Amino acid sequence: MAKPITSITIVGGGTAGWLAATFLRTKLARKIKVTLVESPNVPTVGVGEATVPNMPATLREMGLDDQEFFRRCNASIKMGVMFRNWNVDHKGDFISYMNPFITPPMIDGMEAGYFYHAYGAGKRDFIQSFCPLIDLLEAWKCPLSLGGKEDPMPKVGYAYHLDAVKFAGMLAEVGRERGVTHILDDVDDIELDERGHVAALQLRERGRHDVEFVIDCTGFQGFLLQKALGEPFESYADYLGNDRAMALQIPHQDPSKIPAATSSTALGAGWSWSVPLFNRVGTGYVFSSTHRTDDQARDEFMAHLGDKAPEGAEPRVIPMRVGRTRRAWVKNCVALGLSGGFIEPLESTAIHMIDMGLRWLLMYFPSQDFDEATQNRYNQIVDSMYNEVRDFICLHYQLGNRTDDPYWIDARTQLKIPDRLAENLELWKHRLPGPLDLPTSFLFTHTTFQAVLLGKRVYEMGYGDGAFSRPYAMNEKSWREFLRKSAAHTRATVAYKGAHRTILLAL
Ligand code: FAD
Predict the structure, then answer these.
(1) CATH of 7-73+163-236+326-370 given 3.50.50.60, 3.90.1150.10, 2.40.10.220, 3.90.1640.10
(2) What is the pTM of this model?
(3) CATH architecture group of domain 244-319
(4) Binding residues for L-tryptophan
(5) Is the CB of 186 under 6 A from ligand 1?
(6) Does the predicted interface ipTM exceed a cut of 0.90?
(7) Using an 8 Å Cβ cutoff, are 186 and 37 in contact?
(8) Please, is 498 exposed, middle or buried when counting C-beta atoms within 10 Å of its C-beta (0-12, 13-18, 19+)?
């Protein structure tokens, strides 16, 4: 019988490394030793501050105290991503829309999106037609409340914004308290055994460190899986054109008004993120070096920020390698985080992918024989997750309609469209995205796709011929009645909920 794993070594002390160490230390049997080796010289990427709704559950599962998390990581609540200026309407005015963490309801057995497509919702957009999130955002409120009389809003999913450096620091402290062995040293070299497995790490100060099972969390360097084991990197540059980012931290303009959502504002050659934490805002510009030099992008980004940026502030440039390793797990090495791959952070998916990778690792935990069948299945699942995220990000560009900069035209005409997405884009001219259109929905369901199409108002702007196939009789009266109730519910919810900042202070 194959021998069980007795020790795991994680290389890298960024979000991926410490999330892996603390998660595995919490979940695995005590007899499995967890060691984390972290370079004192190579900095972490230091960004990655918006999450998706799995995060609250992950923290709870790790037994982390909510209050401590909010206080230490200057965390805030995220209801979704607000997209600004990605599309224009018939008058040439910019359109804003939200991608929320909430599923639209069914009306008379049919998805709300079909009613919205057929009858609209007056001045309210698709998301506003059925939920109060945008109205809460505009009132600087969030879906949590201080309690008291009956809350009109049923529980909805939400995510967190968090300070990346403080979050890794908190995970490190908890991990060490729970028994993770922490080594501060550089891995200079890797020793392979006769099977090509990683046998040992050569540490600069401590010398040889034996390895049984190793997790590569070395960031964009990909020191183990790519450099030592030679696993090829499959670039997504043909699908996604952005390859650089610049990041800056700025103060809140008015600290009493903290938006409970991430925002993504389209600029000339990419988009600017804004992640509002409790004490400051993390912002940046993701752009294409084919369309802007660093200096041009910097000027454009600083002009976008205007007086929001402090005097003399200089953004930090981060080259982005977009794509993924062909396999995430090779022999006795698994890559998690940036070392395994990265897709531009438009939907804040990277930490989620680390989280999912860890959960699947527990599900497909190896023994010392590292059988191929287990690895293959893990790799297939990770592959599907990358495809899902890549396709969803590509959708935002393919359905953009800006023509004011060659960047936006190139994004639609020069980049490749993944096959399944191309097929779906034809299909969705005739019907809204449906559950069977997507090979997987680990994170993005068909209704998330619907929210993008309807949010961008693509049908009003001539996508498809508008003649949807609708097998069910639709009763406009039911929709009008639904809209009336929904608007009343939104008003009651906005009146009831507390200010986001007040809630954060009370947590
Ligand atoms: P890193 O933080 O780079 O850590 C690498 C670690 O490896 C460091 O500790 C380093 O010291 C160590 N190391 C490297 N080489 C060696 C060596 N030879 N020996 C020992 N140690 C070594 N994700 C989200 O989920 N949401 C977001 O909103 C988001 N925004 C992003 C914005 C940008 C512009 C970018 C670039 C990324 C963003 N991400 C986001 C991704 C997110 O930042 C990363 O997934 C996350 O921080 C994990 O990084 P990491 O731990 O893999 O790598």
Answers:
(1) 3.50.50.60
(2) 0.97
(3) 2-Layer Sandwich (3.30)
(4) 347
(5) yes
(6) yes
(7) no
(8) middle
